[in-house]
Specification:
Strand order of the largest sheet: 3-1-2-4-5-6-7
Structural class: alpha/beta
Shape: globular
Largest sheet: 7 strands, mixed
Number of helices: 8
Helix content: 25-40%
Length: 300
């Protein structure tokens, strides 16, 4: 298990008409006193928590580097910043600072769970996803009443408003004009109490699967249909990622956590065609869309 806390601790203070007046001859150091007073009175910004489950320490590091990457830049131009890993064991933690001045709330609504899968062994995905879901169910059953209520409210909000994010083909989540569409078959059958995203990392290994394990389109499609069907039950999102290929991982994670740029509006666009760039946003999928990918798959 690997936890990443996105901590919003930055504060912004302005010196303007509302600042403490300065009398003539007052020591210059009072300017700094005014600044410190402004900072001290500022509102503490909330934490955004990213909990990453699964994957080796190396895969976790690479995944976090992908999360920190700028999707608008070419892979060879990206800075390879090493994320702050606590240790080299499977159990560890890290953190990064994310500024979010507009959101407020408790830790559960501000948390996203990522289940990390490795493209080196896609035949183990079903078992790993099943085990992590069981693990989350066990953990959430031990919560006290306050946490359970918070989890229920979070799931309700996630279903109806999608955390204020914007997804292609749907209403702006959390907006006053958003339309709540009734749930379809297989959707949200088993809410887990926390938003979930499954990330299949290392799509550059796809070629090795074709060459060394004789994987064809049928195997890739079946894996995708299986994951989408399972995740649909829990209202989860899905993304295929690679450090060497530009992807929308930062946009998906930030949108899921309710973090939005005031300067650039980004849209999470679904993609179920390009097998190395798959992205299924939360609340986008359905049994009908899953069946279309390849006939013969039983979603029930």
């Amino acid at each position: 298990m690997y936890a990443q806390g996105m901590k919003s601790r930055a504060r912004v203070s302005n010196i303007g008409p509302g600042s403490r007046p300065q009398s003539k001859g007052e020591p210059e150091k009072n300017i700094w006193s005014s600044l410190l007073d402004s900072v001290a009175s500022g509102k503490k910004l909330p934490e955004k928590n990213l909990l990453v489950l699964g994957g080796s320490p190396e895969l976790q590091k690479e995944f976090l580097e992908t999360l920190e990457s700028d999707t608008t830049r070419r892979p060879q131009d990206r800075k390879r910043k090493k994320p702050p890993i606590a240790n080299e064991l499977a159990l560890g933690y890290t953190y990064q600072h994310v500024l979010d001045a507009d959101q407020d709330g408790t830790s559960i609504p501000e948390t996203l769970v990522v289940v990390l899968l490795d493209w080196a062994e896609p035949w183990s995905w079903a078992r790993q996803v099943r085990n992590w879901i069981r693990f989350l169910k066990v953990i959430t059953t031990t919560w006290d009443d306050d946490r359970k209520i918070a989890a229920e409210e979070t799931m309700k909000d996630w279903q109806q408003h999608r955390r204020g994010a914007s997804y292609e083909g749907g209403a702006s989540i959390g907006s006053e004009n958003a339309v709540n569409i009734p749930l379809g078959e297989g959707e949200w059958d088993e809410p887990l109490g926390l938003p979930i995203c499954v990330a299949c990392h290392g799509t550059e290994k796809i070629e090795a699967l074709e060459r060394d394990h004789s994987w064809r389109e049928e195997e890739f499609d079946f894996s995708l249909q299986y994951l989408r069907t399972v995740l649909l039950k829990h209202g989860s999102s899905l993304i295929y990622t690679s450090l060497s290929v530009p992807n929308s991982l930062p946009t998906l994670i930030h949108s899921s956590l309710g973090i939005h740029s005031l300067l650039k509006r980004q849209t999470v666009k679904h993609n179920v065609i390009d097998r190395d760039k798959v992205l299924v946003p939360p609340n986008w999928d359905s049994w009908g869309k899953i069946r279309v990918l390849r006939e013969g798959f039983d979603v029930e």
